[in-house]
Design goal:
About 75% of the residues lie in helices and about 5% in strands. It is mainly alpha-helical.
Length: about 150
């Protein structure tokens, strides 16, 4: 699920800290935003927008963190509104609901562990790519050739 690779250059201390913070932002938002799933995405989006002109290393990790939160939004929103409909309507708890909630909890736990691991490794200046999100991030986050000279 996680691939640790060499980056094209060694990021500086400030870059590693900022990139690591992009993952920590979603963890902090979990505490502040429960049970509303959109809070994590908004916090990560604000951090991404604030760092979109940063070095490639920082932008890359801000983008990967944002993509992971976007998928979490869909998974958690569906579970949230399904739960709300059970609480406030005559809908009952079914085996499909329980299966979905268990799947969502496993996905959330996996994403939480991956986020903590990635934040720690990125803080050390180690480049960590997540399965699926890493490839998607490469497609979205292009290296700015003018900025590349600054990154070296």
């Amino acid at each position: 699920m996680i691939n640790v690779t060499e980056f094209s250059y060694n990021p500086g201390e400030h870059e590693a800290e900022t990139a690591s913070n992009s993952y920590l932002m979603s963890l902090i938002a979990i505490i502040a935003g429960l049970p509303l799933p959109i809070i994590n995405l908004i916090a990560t989006l604000v951090f991404y927008l604030g760092n979109r002109k940063a070095s490639y290393f920082v932008r890359w990790h801000c983008t990967q963190a944002l993509l992971s939160q976007l998928s979490m939004l869909f998974i958690n929103s569906f579970g949230f509104w399904w739960t709300i409909s059970i609480i406030f309507t005559s809908e009952t708890i079914t085996s499909k609901f329980i299966a979905y909630i268990i799947s969502a909890l496993i996905f959330n736990l996996t994403e939480f562990i991956a986020t903590v691991y990635t934040a720690i490794q990125t803080r050390k200046g180690i480049h960590v790519e997540w399965w699926f999100y890493g490839n998607l991030t490469h497609l979205i986050c292009k290296r700015n050739h003018h900025k590349q000279l600054h990154d070296l």
